[in-house]
């Protein structure tokens, strides 16, 4: 059930007007008064949000490290293939692999 249904139009408008009045004097939007029906699953606590954000940042950092390691390996393979005289097809294959890895990394962003 929506709050508007529960309160009725008149009382809902009065509550909304009071909230709007209070929020109009507060410049920091994080301090604005808000309401939500928790049964609809729309509310996420700041602690949970921050925790999930930290996990995602750690995951991104890990993937950045993996990409850096893969790029270093590719450079090492290019260097080794040139030193061994396998500059043609091997270098082309490594270039294709590098493009694929970079594309895959950017498509996931």
Task: Give the gist of this structure.
The protein has 4 helices and no strands. The protein has 109 residues and is an all-alpha fold.
Distance between the termini: 37 Å
What gyration radius follows from the Cα positions, in whole Å? Answer: 27 Å
Rounded average pLDDT: 85
Quaternary assembly: single chain
Please describe the structure with a list of short key phrases separated by commas or semicolons:
single chain; 109 residues; mainly alpha; 4 helices; rod-shaped
Structural summary, described in words:
The protein is mainly alpha-helical and 109 residues long. Helices cover 72% and strands 0% of the residues. It is built from 4 helices and no strands. It has helices at residues 3-7, 9-24, 46-83, 89-107. The chain is rod-shaped, with a radius of gyration of 27 Å. The two termini are 37 Å apart.
Write the layout of secondary structure elements.
Elements lengths: L2 H5 L1 H16 L21 H38 L5 H19 L2
Helix pairs in contact: 3-4
């Amino acid at each position: 059930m929506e709050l508007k249904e529960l309160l009725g139009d008149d009382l809902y408008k009065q509550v909304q007007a009071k909230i709007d009045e209070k929020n109009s004097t507060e410049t920091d939007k994080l301090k604005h008064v808000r309401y939500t029906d928790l049964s609809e699953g729309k509310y996420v606590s700041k602690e949970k949000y921050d925790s999930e954000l930290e996990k995602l940042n750690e995951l991104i950092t890990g993937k950045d490290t993996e990409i850096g390691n893969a790029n270093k390996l590719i450079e090492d393979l290019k260097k080794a293939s040139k030193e061994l005289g396998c500059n043609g097809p091997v270098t082309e294959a490594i270039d294709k692999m590098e493009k694929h890895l970079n594309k895959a990394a950017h498509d996931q962003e």
